[in-house]
């Protein structure tokens, strides 16, 4: 099979030819495993480089109009050279359907339709984000990894479950590359800023910047404002670059580790242009190695926007018969990865793995030793993080966890009793509560209580910060009544803001959606429980949080 891929969502006008001798291996349910080493890939790219500032949508569309015909012709000429025998020179044409800049996507769509019609071959519409992560899965041979996409306009963690890629966590504001590029524009550097930050950071000293993760979601706006203020105050830019890399990449590594812990999988793949950064790859590799997980970053030619990844996923989709009639091939600038009907993977595959309980538990953050009555939680140093940042986070979180666990109980929420705390070593001894994590015994009644408890916390001005199905314990009392306990308040804080309260609900809802087949009754129960005690304003804000298009 030989397929043409075309990419042009924002800055890279790119066309590629992907060829495999063993197309059967691209499908699922076969006994064949793809051998990427024996594939043939040819990529021709023509990037748009703004003279000043960031990407201007009109200029980038002009660039696409000028450059796409050339890269497509070059790729087709290459396909023709490799072609022997009868029939069309490629078996299909795959193109980036979205997300991206509308005017750019339309140019790519028009080019793809015209080539497919001229050659009389099928058209395949590829989701650019899914392509960023499928290339890593394809090259690594991993079965069902957690995927971290660190690209310009996006940043999210995805895992496949029940026919779709689920968003396990994502940025609440800008994409990671765009955040970095905004800082470099502020200090007068040309686009793209990411590679320049990496270079400058080699000669700098670490500076502290705000660190913001909420469950597996995260945000960059506070860090970027603080970084700009540091620059305006005269802090050397190279120092700020170190602070930016250390902070932003530690956040991405931490949420990736949380996703590994929540799903129970031991495979992580990286995708997206920021994946070029050696420090990010180093942190992810170190985290994975220490957990005993496998890590894969694709070859550099497949990291930033490129048509090779579009062609490879296009081939899998074509093999699955997932083609588009011309009349239904319109582009979609807001095409989310979780909207894609994943036709090329089996329904039995899943990112979620069976849970094993062997006494000593390693959460994402800490090791937890459980004895008959007590649980000792140790926030062990994370060597992938800069030592200063690591000390700060471990100290802050240990203190917050001990304080908020007790505050929550005063607000009428069941939590373990705190028996001892050592903030310097990052150790807390808790009463042992419950018999299982909610993740192992998900049922609407318990979830309803979680809703009620979150409402009680919020009424008392407390935000949990990380309410997932693994941070809720369930058990029964002596009379056989179900008891629900909230644990792990380490990311908690005091806030009366509706947005912070809605985020708590969102984080919990995401942890349910990421790991269950039928989330609806559970989410209904969550809201019903919340409604009983909490404010309706928070529930309507939750709707807004969920509907936000985060492609900026
Ligand atoms: C929708 C689509 O158009 C968009 N594409 C995109 O953002 O291009 P991508 O090639 O994945 O990523 C570009 C970003 O990657 C950053 N980047 C490239 N090399 C870097 C490095 N060594 N360190 C940090 N960032 C780097 C750039 O600064 C830029 O922000 C996306 O995938 O979000
Ligand atoms: N007080 C407790 N009683 C019973 N089990 C507990 C208690 N505290 C923690 N555990 C168990 O240990 C696991 C990990 O604890 P915890 O969530 O506090 O650590 P963590 O490292 O922050 O994990 P993560 O970041 O993955 O949520 C919990 O999912 C739970 O199974
Ligand atoms: Fe991209």
UniProtKB/TrEMBL annotation:
- GO molecular function per UniProt: kinase activity
Q: Which InterPro entries match?
A: ATPase_NBD (IPR043129), Bud32 (IPR022495), Gcp-like_dom (IPR000905), KAE1/TsaD (IPR017861), Kae1_archaea_euk (IPR034680), Kinase-like_dom_sf (IPR011009), Peptidase_M22_CS (IPR017860), tRNA_threonyl_synthase/kinase (IPR009220)
Q: Which of this chain's residues are annotated to bind Fe cation?
A: 128, 132, 305
Catalytic activity, EC: 2.3.1.234, 2.7.11.1
Active-site residues, as the UniProt record annotates them: 466 (proton acceptor)
Give the residues the record marks as binding L-threonylcarbamoyladenylate: 149-153, 181, 194, 198, 277
Q: Where is this region: Kae1?
A: 1-344
Swiss-Prot/TrEMBL catalytic activity: L-threonylcarbamoyladenylate + adenosine(37) in tRNA = N(6)-L-threonylcarbamoyladenosine(37) in tRNA + AMP + H(+); L-threonyl-[protein] + ATP = O-phospho-L-threonyl-[protein] + ADP + H(+); L-seryl-[protein] + ATP = O-phospho-L-seryl-[protein] + ADP + H(+)
What does the entry's cofactor note say about binding and number?
Binds 1 Fe(2+) ion per subunit.
Cofactor(s) required, per the database record? Fe(2+)
Domain Gcp-like, first and last residues per copy: 41-311
Question: Which NCBIfam families would you find in this protein's record?
Answer: arch_bud32, arch_KAE1, gcp_kae1, PRK09605.1, PRK14879.1-3
Summarizing the function annotation, the protein's role is: Required for the formation of a threonylcarbamoyl group on adenosine at position 37 (t(6)A37) in tRNAs that read codons beginning with adenine. Is a component of the KEOPS complex that is probably involved in the transfer of the threonylcarbamoyl moiety of threonylcarbamoyl-AMP (TC-AMP) to the N6 group of A37. The Kae1 domain likely plays a direct catalytic role in this reaction. The Bud32 domain probably displays kinase activity that regulates Kae1 function.
User: What name does this protein carry?
Assistant: Probable bifunctional tRNA threonylcarbamoyladenosine biosynthesis protein
Source organism per entry reads Haloferax larsenii
